[in-house]
Design brief:
heterodimer, A: alpha+beta, Yope Regulator, Chain: A, 3 helices, elongated, B: alpha+beta, 4 helices, 6 strands
Chain lengths: 139, 154
């Protein structure tokens, strides 16, 4: 592993949540992947921007989804939901849920990590329920 | 592979750390402890009844309501709303334990519904906490007193 590992406090937060994780860093990015209740999540940071951290999850849209409806639901969630940005990737037919934070130190994320995970989870649940699919499809 | 080992493997596959230990030193009884959404849960399973599981989680009763007499009544009310859940007061009534016994047809069925069972147990526990700390009854009593008080003539 290379230096400037500013995501290590988030590893601690994931451990405190009782979750397992894996690291997949390269020269530019720091990446953590983990699961909670079987759903996959990621954390991304950049070596040249230690003040930025992104926590996210993503699922494939159900094959019978109305794309315009998916975008409309995402927009409504973006207006209403705290923290979470919902994006629809048309080409990949994916729904992406992310939280982007500007931090001085990733320790700031640690006491709020459970709340942020809940926000991601709840937003995805509401998105797929509004889409008419209670369970998101596997990516 | 034992039933406890299969459950532990399932939980780890789902992303969760698990601690497995024998119950009271009995080789056929195991307890698996894991954490999700900030709450500890335990699963008790016997190798003699591999499709029968007990899932439990504990909640602290806030100190300021411990002296109030309605905790048992509140837990009874929530048991009516969640009939699969049982509540037990423990540790000198400082905590209550919410428990559901789950009888699965087989291990795959257990795994398929596992997080729904956890979710339902969490919902029952949270509902019980809300009911225990509910101040609306004392507010209603105060309102009644004030209404009676206001009836007096000047």
């Amino acid at each position: 592993m290379q230096g400037n590992d500013h995501l290590s406090p988030i590893e601690g937060a994931i451990e405190e949540e009782g979750l397992l994780f894996t690291r997949d860093d390269d020269d530019e990015a720091l990446r953590i992947t983990f699961k909670s209740e079987g759903d996959r999540y990621f954390v991304v940071g950049y070596r040249d921007d230690p003040n930025f951290v992104m926590i996210g999850s993503g699922w494939a849209l159900p094959s019978d989804s109305d794309f315009a409806n998916a975008v409309s639901i995402a927009n409504a969630l973006n207006v209403r939901k705290k923290f979470v940005k919902t994006a629809i990737w048309e080409e990949e037919c994916d729904a992406l849920f992310t939280i982007e934070l500007c931090i001085e130190d990733a320790e700031e994320v640690r006491p709020n990590f459970g709340r942020l995970l809940d926000a991601l989870r709840d937003t995805a649940t509401e998105f797929f329920a509004a889409l008419g699919h209670d369970e998101p499809e596997a990516p | 592979m034992t039933t406890a080992e299969q459950i532990a493997r399932f939980l780890e596959t789902e992303g969760h750390r698990v601690e497995t230990s024998p119950i009271d030193g009995a080789a056929d009884l195991s307890e698996l402890v894991f954490r999700t959404r900030g709450q500890m849960f335990s699963i008790s399973v016997s190798e003699l009844e591999p499709n029968r599981y007990t899932l439990s989680t504990a909640y602290e009763i806030p100190e300021w309501v411990r002296e109030r007499s309605h905790t048992v009544e509140a837990l009874g009310d929530v048991e009516t709303d969640f009939p699969e859940t049982r509540f037990i007061l423990a540790h000198d009534d400082t905590i209550f334990v919410a428990t559901v016994e789950y009888q699965a047809v087989d291990m795959d069925t257990f795994f398929k519904h596992f997080w729904n069972v956890v979710s339902r147990l969490r919902e029952a526990g949270n509902s019980a906490v809300e009911r225990i700390v509910d101040r609306s009854e004392s507010k209603a009593a105060a309102d009644k007193f004030i209404r009676q008080f206001m009836k007096g003539e000047r």
